[in-house]
Amino acid sequence: MARLSERVRDLHGSPVRAMLAAAQSPNMISFAGGLPASDSFEDVDLPPPPKSLLQYGPSEGEPALRAAVAAELSRIGLECPPERILILSGSQQGIDLAAKLHIDPGTMVGVESPTYLAALQAFRFFGARCRVVHRNNPAHNWSAKARPALTYVNPTFQNPTGYCWSAAERDALAAACDAHDVTLFEDDPYRALAYDPCERTPICARVKRAPWIYQGSFSKTLAPGLRVGFLAASSDLFPHLLNLKQAADLHTNRLGQWYALRSLQDPKRGERMERLVSRYRHRRDAFAASLTRHLGDVADWAVPAGGLFFWVTLNARIDMTLLLDRARKAGVLFTPGEHFLPYPSDDLPSLRLNFSHAGELEADRGLEILGRLIREAMENRKRTPRYEMAAAPH
Questions:
Q1: How far is CA 318 from CA 278, 345, 374, in A?
Q2: Closest listed residue to residue 121, CA positions, set 17, 38, 39, 31
């Protein structure tokens, strides 16, 4: 057996990646991953890139794309020069770089609960001790001797809950990071997918003294197959992030960067985004109606103002592992809420359901199946005294 590092002892595969593989099966209805609608790619019509892009490129990213991203950030209230923009191989790379920069075994990292499961996976891989950050009091129990080195939040149409932080909540976290010199890491891949009015100005734009990292992605608004994201960072952090990027992959795919730049420069981009937002708003509303029809008697949820997910909480405890297995066999996939928690919880079980990928009729059929299976599980719980013990969190 090869001698492996200590880190890989507790390294496990991503549950979402496993379900994305299962979603490729014919006739599978998937609510599991954050997949954009397949028909959204029909609006993407880009000419072939120049062959000069087949050569190596700069680690920071293509200068024209960095300038375009800086201009976009300025329009949403975050001022950062192109020299502090780093083009990523997908936003997951930004999480990896931030973790490498801040985390040693035992380092405290602030996170929401629930939070993005791939971020939890990366932080745990580097040995982080995760602590929950509460929106109404983010600096609770922070002190000079006990404070996170990094606080990671996804405040705009949060993955998995869809929640959008208020202006007061954003101000409070920015002030807390300033007061305690805590690096703020703001992950913002969904901000363009807004279906109802809400506060979306980045928290990083409110920070006055603390180090910060802000990242976004082209995966949800253009195409996830390009694997192109970006980050902006405060001047003290950016050189280190660039060095870590160079050690990881030299530079991001230049062809993907070219397509991302063409998309930003497209004079019809505004029209395309309006069509995309309109399509997703319609799917969200149809999904909410289907949820009411098929799960209204067994679960609660809030209709998200943007993003791609519903966070559905059941009104009784059931065995979620068994539910997922039965749903998969019936041709439906979802993501159990426990994967998004930094710690086990005694709260009622939840599901994250993606509404963007499946068509309306397909989604309605999938939710009908899921509702039936949930009701069956709840009836089994009532009839079997030992079922509650088996379903308890562990």
A1: 36, 14, 8
A2: 17
- Half-sphere exposure of 129 toward its Cβ, with a 13 Å CA cutoff? 8
| Lowest-confidence region among 118-122, 220-224, 245-249 | 220-224
Q: How far apart are alpha carbons 369 and 305 in whole angstroms?
A: 26
> Among 103-107, 187-191, 390-394, which stretch is predicted with the lowest mean pLDDT?
390-394
| Two structure tokens written together for 71 | 């201009």
Domains annotated for the chain, with CATH where assigned, are: 6-40+270-391 (3.90.1150.10), 49-265 (3.40.640.10)
| Residue 370, SS3 per DSSP | helix
pLDDT score of 393: 42
- Using one digit for the tens of pLDDT, what is the confidence trace for 32-82? 988 887 777 666 777 788 899 989 999 999 999 999 999 999 999 999 999
pLDDT of residue 21: 63
Determine the Cα–Cα distance for residues 308 and 192; give it in Å rounded to an integer: 11
DSSP for 67-134 reads HHHHHHHHHTT----GGGEEEESSHHHHHHHHHHHH--TT-EEEE-SS--HHHHHHHHHTT-EEEEPB
Q: At what angle do helices 63-75 and 254-265 cross, to 10 degrees?
A: 40
Distance separating alpha carbons of residues 96 and 110, to the nearest angstrom: 16
The two tokens of residue 11 are 């390294």
Q: Are 227 and 251 in contact (CB under 8 A)?
A: no
Q: Which residue's entry shows tokens 């802000």?
A: 214
Q: Residue 43, exposed/middle/buried by CB under 10 A (0-12, 13-18, 19+)?
A: middle
pLDDT for res 382: 77
In which residue are the tokens 């890989």 written? 8
Average pLDDT over the chain, rounded to an integer: 91
